[in-house]
Amino acid sequence: MPSELNLMTGLSLRFRVLLSGVLLLVAALSAAHPSDAGVELQAEQRFQLALEAQADRDYRTMLVQLRQAATEGHAEAQEMLGMVLLTGPTLYGTAVKADRCEAGAWMRRAAMQGSETAKVQLTFLNRLRASPAGKRACE
Questions:
Q1: Angle between helices 75-87 and 100-112 (to 10 degrees)
Q2: Over the stretch 12-52, which tens digit does the pLDDT of each residue have?
Q3: What one-character-per-residue DSSP string does 33-58 give?
Q4: Is the CA virtual torsion 120, 128, 112, 93 positive or negative?
Q5: Which is it for the CA torsion 128, 131, 137, 139, positive or negative?
Q6: For residues 15 and 36, what is the distance between their CA atoms, to the nearest angstrom?
Q7: pTM, to two decimals
């Protein structure tokens, strides 16, 4: 009887080790090939990814995610994109080219959605780029 018990315990242990190995393999394969790679992100998720990229100082990714979220109508992304484009290399190095005209366009879109922050930013921006009489800086 004790030898049968040892045999069953040994098989049970081998089975658990084998099962653990299979589960580890499945976990590793899942991590290597995420099943959600084709999932479409929402504007808020893209905005959050932009904030994470900013924290990581990955400004190219930040800009891509901000543009996408802003294009999809996310007001906070529009505000932030406007400021990023206004400050450009001053804060973000060579990864972001300053473009006051595009910055103004994004701020106007956010202001049209009721963003008070964008309205203040537009006032500031309009003071920065005062054009000669009769000329418009951005068309």
A1: 160
A2: 667 676 666 666 666 655 555 444 556 688 999 999 999 99
A3: S-TTTTPPPPHHHHHHHHHHHHHTT-
A4: negative
A5: positive
A6: 31
A7: 0.67
